[in-house]
């Protein structure tokens, strides 16, 4: 739990969200023999208590729909403060075998410029089209999330993944998309039952 406490204390990013997710990196502890968890405490690292509650409730609902008992951490851990002691008590009190933690790792602003080409049909058609065409410019945020699973019995990190997607403020929808991306992977990797 010491590593988890450090993670909870040092995370200072607002929990953001993405519209579509791609897994960019994944690690599983090769020495971890299980068993797969059937009960998970869900933690969303965020300065916004509203975003945290929405994330934890939504992800917990998807875990439960997949047959895994889930408890949101906000039920025991107050917003904005160190939560290591209440988290330890929550995990022990619920009998959870694992703790799933998601935080924003970074947000990058990107600009996409798509040129529109000039018309053809001889020099005069090309020349007029070159002046009339303007590029399409799109600005967007790419959010990288880190989701880690800690074994509650050993207090060790057993699985972690980074995901990337385009930023959005619709937290329930994007949490659903994150859950739909990660829960099957967690099950196939033997982390969850």
TrEMBL record:
Gene3D superfamilies noted in UniProt: 3.30.160.670
Record keyword Signal present: yes
Domain DUF4136 per the UniProt entry, residue ranges: 100-170
Superkingdom, taxonomy of origin: Bacteria
PROSITE patterns named among the record's database cross-references: PROKAR_LIPOPROTEIN
Pfam families per UniProt: DUF4136
Keywords, sorted A to Z: Signal
Signal sequence residues: 1-17
The protein, known as: DUF4136 domain-containing protein
Organism: Dyella solisilvae
Lineage per the UniProt record: Bacteria, Pseudomonadati, Pseudomonadota, Gammaproteobacteria, Lysobacterales
């Amino acid at each position: 739990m010491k590593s988890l406490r450090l993670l909870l204390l040092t995370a200072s990013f607002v929990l953001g969200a993405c519209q579509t997710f791609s897994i960019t990196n994944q690690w599983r502890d090769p020495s971890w023999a299980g068993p797969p968890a059937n009960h998970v405490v869900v933690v969303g690292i965020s300065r916004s208590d509203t975003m945290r509650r929405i994330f934890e409730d939504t992800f917990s609902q998807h875990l439960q729909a997949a047959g895994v008992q889930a408890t949101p951490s906000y039920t025991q851990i107050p917003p904005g403060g160190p939560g290591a002691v209440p988290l330890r008590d929550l995990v022990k009190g619920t009998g959870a075998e694992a703790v799933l933690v998601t935080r924003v790792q970074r947000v990058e602003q990107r600009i996409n410029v798509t040129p529109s080409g000039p018309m053809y049909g001889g020099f005069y058609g090309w020349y007029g089209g070159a002046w009339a065409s303007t590029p399409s410019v799109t600005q967007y945020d790419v959010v990288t999330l880190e989701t880690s699973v800690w074994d509650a019995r050993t207090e060790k990190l057993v699985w972690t993944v980074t995901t990337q997607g385009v930023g959005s403020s619709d937290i329930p929808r994007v949490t659903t998309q994150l859950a739909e991306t990660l829960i099957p992977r967690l099950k196939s990797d033997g982390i969850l039952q």
